[in-house]
Sequence to fold (379 residues):
Amino acid sequence: MNSFRDWLRQQICASEERWLPFSEWMEASLYHPQWGYYMRPKKKIGKCGDYYTSSSVGTVFGAVLAEGLFGLLESLSAEEWVILELGGGDGRLACQILNAFQRYPSVYRKLTYFLLEKSPFHRQLQFQHLISHKERIVYLDSLEQLQGVTGVILSNEFFDALPVHILERHDGKWEEVGVTWNENTLCFEEERRPCRNQRLLELLEELAIAAEEGGRVELSLAAVEWINQLASVLEKGYLLTVDYGYLADGAASAAMPKGTLRGYRMHQIMTNPYLYPGEQDLTADVNFSLLIEMGKKACLEPLLFESQRKFLLRLGILEELVEGADDPFSAEARKNRAIRQLLLDETGMGERFCVLLQGKNVFVPRVFRGLSRQVSFNI
Fold:
């Protein structure tokens, strides 16, 4: 077998229907041990990569987030402070958070920061970025290595990278999008089949998801599985999710009739997910209604949902950006303006990204009281 394309073609041709649900295509494209996008030894974040993240545009995001984490952990009154970060990328966010905690030596010494990362390449980058915090870091290969956690489970752009099923509405029925191999054109092609996955149909009904004729929606069964696993690991504490996404209501469906799936390659949006398998990032906006509803079933109470912009403003991001403000031409001032534009712009990451706080056996801590809830949690 000479390439990833050959492997994918073989998987399709060996399947009973000679067709793979899109979720399986996305899973392989991102996480195949040898050829998957996230598993390849290639830089993905920043100017020389394929996309930016909130933690890659400066250190302020992690510093402000650390203030919120401090408040959450303090409210638990535990002898040991625990943070579990899902994914972690190149380790920059963890480093920013730990640098902020280091300002409080007595707290820093009782903090354990777990990193769950399946990519060997990303694990190497994390080693490099976090060498100064090695005594506080524990690397995990599997969530099964933890049980009975009292602390905070943190994710930043984690759920958007989980495989999704794509469903399309035709003649009043749901069809599932999948991938076939065309022997004549020697290309991967998209093909719809009647949706026979009962769990998907149940979720569509539970979340009251509707679509016009030809409209598309994405649902992640992987996200449901993760929520259930995280809830079982967490004995007492919080699940803090930062990601781009939406609530599953009629307005969302109308605004995104063709769904949200897209690729990123060299900072360009890719509209064809079947080109460059393993060489482009594939992502879909997070359905926060799914996380909320599945979380409630798993004893995770929704405590807060709002835009990243409001969240960061309430936690004092403007104070973090004050340095260098006296000289508008200084390098620090220019960097601050860039960070403002990326993180706080009402038309950019600030509003597209949302923050969801869920809790188990806890109350809303003081630092988050009074924050606006922009969602009815009885949906």
